[in-house]
Amino acid sequence: MTGSEAPPTFRLAYVPGATPGKWVRIWNERLPDVSLTLVSVTAAEASDVLRAGDADAGIVRLPVDRTVFSAIPLYTEATVVVVPKDHLLTAADEVTVEDLAEEVVLHPLDDVLGWEQLPGEPAFERPATTADAVELVAAGIGVLAVPQSLARLHHRRDLTYRPLVDAPQSSVALSWPEDAHTDLVEDFIGIVRGRTVNSTRGRTPAQAAQPKEKRRAEPAARRKPTARQQPRTPKGARRGKPRRRS
User: Fold this and answer.
1) Do the bridges between strand 57-61 and strand 159-163 make them parallel or antiparallel, or are there none, so unpaired?
2) For residue 210, what pLDDT band results from cuts at 50, 70 and 90?
3) N or C: which end of the chain has fewer CB atoms below 10 A?
4) Residue 174 burial by Cβ neighbours in a 10 Å radius (0-12, 13-18, 19+)
C-alpha cells in the first residue's frame, strides 16, 4: 500500500436497541488492520443510509426492501409494556393486549412494531420518538409497548415493564445492498454466523482446501505398502518341499 492509499475501513450501521459489541470485538481480533466504524441510525433511516453508501452493512429492523437489500435474520425480540413502578399492571408477571383496553397506549412516530390496530385508548397526540413516549409514561400520561431492547435502552428508575405476550414483535437482521456484497461484508457475515477463521465459507477457501489437494496428489510410493502376494498353488497340488525320488 502506498502512502496515498487510505487504509481499509468497514462501516456498520445499527439501530437503537441493537448491540453489535460482540461482533465488533471479534472483528477487531480477526482483522486488526481494518478499522470498523459504528454508525448510529434510527430504524426509519437505516435503509436510506445503506442505499446511499454511507454504511457497508447494518443491523436493522425488518422488513427491508428485498428487491434492493439482502438480509440475514438474527433474532426476534419479545414485546413488553412500559409502565410506572406503582402501576396496577405490575401485579401480573405478563400482560395481554386485552389488559390494556382501558389504558392510554402511546404510539410514537418511530414505532417499530407495526400495529394493525393499536390497543387501548389513543393518546391526544403521538409522541415524536420512543424517548419522548417514555417521558410521558413517567409523567403518568399513558403506557408504551416496545421491543424489550428499547425498554432497556430507555430504562428509568421510576419505570418497569412486563411481557406483552400477544402483541406484534420486531425482528432484527443484518442487511446490505445486494449490489455491494464486498469481501468485507462477507467477512462480517462469517462473524455473525459464527464461522471460524479457517471456515471454507470465509475468504480463505483455497487455503482450507490445500490439505485435501495435497492428500490427493500424494505419490503412490508414499502409500502404505501391501503384503507381497505369494504365487498361487495349482489346484490339487501339495504345498511344501517336493519329495526326492529314491
Assistant:
1) unpaired
2) very low
3) C
4) buried
